[in-house]
Design a protein that fits this description.
alpha/beta, Rossmann fold, Arc Repressor Mutant, subunit A, six-stranded parallel beta sheet, about 15% strand, CheY-like_superfamily, DNA-binding, DNA-binding NarL/FixJ family response regulator, WalR-like, phosphoprotein
Length: about 220
């Protein structure tokens, strides 16, 4: 059973997310919070597998709450809920170890798939969010954008052709199972590839790896 903490200051949003999660018998919402500070307190109390946090909340926003949860309850993974208007905040959460980014307006199946992936120790980046994140990271000066691309391209030269192929699919938001199906591999082999990729790229999780994939030009469309 995946135990979930849900935090959003809008009651209707919480009700909607709770209803979606309630359609899967493997997921249980064990606590709800209406602000970031309460989310941190409830995470410490209930120690859920996953904390699903809205970015904009009173008292303490989701970014600060997520960072504190990762610090004080390290076994709890953090998933951020976002809207397109909040893209600029997503990159800030990467360094704090957030494992997932999902759109409030996204497909309900994506929410469930994302939580399951994160609960299993992976990371999940909604494909639509991925495109927006890269657009945000690349929206600065041309020199900065080109410098990041150059660094990313240098990073991926350390990968084998198969690892670069796997990285490109990670950048599309695919799970290990989906990558295995696409490349006709067993899931355990894909997991080993992903672990090696994270080490060689010196990144914390699949979300940061996806950023490198985009900036290195391994993801198109």
């Amino acid at each position: 059973m995946i135990r979930v903490l849900l935090a959003d200051d809008e009651m209707m949003v919480r009700a909607g997310v709770r209803a979606i999660l309630g359609t899967d018998t493997a997921i249980e919402v064990v606590a709800e919070a209406s602000d970031g500070q309460e989310a941190v307190e409830l995470a410490r109390l209930h120690r859920p597998d996953v904390a699903v946090l809205d970015i904009r909340m009173p008292r303490m926003d989701g970014l600060a709450a997520g960072a504190e949860i990762r610090r004080s309850v390290p076994d709890t993974a953090v998933v951020m809920l976002t809207t397109f208007s909040e893209d600029a905040y997503i990159a800030r959460a990467l360094g704090d170890g957030a494992s997932g980014f999902l759109l409030k307006s996204g497909d309900p199946r994506e929410l469930i798939a994302g939580l399951k992936a994160v609960a299993e120790g992976a990371a999940y980046l909604s494909p639509k969010v991925a495109h927006r994140v890269i657009a945000e990271l690349s929206s600065g000066t041309g020199g900065g954008s080109m410098a990041r691309a150059a660094v990313a391209k240098e990073q991926v030269t350390a990968l084998s052709p198969r690892e670069r192929e796997v990285l490109g699919l990670v950048g599309q938001g695919m799970s290990n199972a989906e990558i295995a199906q696409r490349l006709f591999l067993v899931e355990g082999t894909v997991k080993a590839y992903v672990s090696a990729i994270l080490v060689r790229l010196a990144v914390k999780n699949r979300v940061q790896a996806a950023i490198v994939a985009y900036e290195a030009g391994l993801v198109t469309g």
